[in-house]
Specification:
Number of domains: 1
CATH class: Alpha Beta
Shape: globular
Largest sheet: 9 strands, antiparallel
Order of helices and strands: EEHEEEEHEEE
Helix content: 10-25%
Number of helices: 2
CATH topology: Multidrug-efflux Transporter 1 Regulator Bmrr, Chain A
Number of strands: 9
Strand content: over 45%
CATH superfamily: Regulatory factor, effector binding domain
Length: 154
């Protein structure tokens, strides 16, 4: 499950966004956002810098509320267009986990309730948590990226 910690560079994602309240997450909610993405998918794919898809949970000002952006990585100079949203994922240290797509919910449970409390790092809540989905037709696992910093010594 845990694949290590990597420093990643900042990048931009273009796609569609929904506001999600913690506890209201359902497979239907996420299926709906990805169906909405598919309406624009061909155009987004034409300007993307890779074949992977991203589901990015951007924190908001409201506690327990995030903006979930379903999209693809793009060059920074690509503008928002046609109701699509462009957001920047900040660079930094991210713990990386792999799981099958049907095990994402369980993987998140393991990360935040088992792994993180005993890890030598702490979660950075101001940064987004994101999923990287492999290109269509691939059997590769989903990668979950959790922003972390070294824990301060007591």
């Amino acid at each position: 499950m845990h694949q290590g910690i990597e420093r990643i560079e900042a990048f931009s994602v273009l796609g569609v966004v929904i506001r999600v309240t913690q506890g209201s997450e359902t497979s239907e909610l996420f299926s709906g956002i990805w169906e909405e993405f598919e309406h624009h998918g061909q155009w987004i794919e034409s300007v993307s810098t890779g074949k992977q898809y991203y589901g990015v949970n951007f924190p908001t000002e409201a506690e327990h509320v995030s903006d979930y952006l379903a999209g693809m990585r793009i060059a920074d100079d690509i503008p928002e267009t046609g109701g699509l949203v462009k957001r920047r994922v900040p660079g930094g240290n991210y713990a990386i986990f792999e799981c099958p797509v049907e095990g994402i919910g369980e993987c998140y449970q393991q990360i935040f309730s088992v792994w993180l409390p005993s890890a030598r790092v702490c979660f950075v809540p101001e940064y987004p948590v994101f999923e990287e989905y492999p290109e269509k037709g691939s059997s590769l696992p989903v990668r979950i990226y959790v922003p972390v910093n070294k824990k301060d010594k007591p």
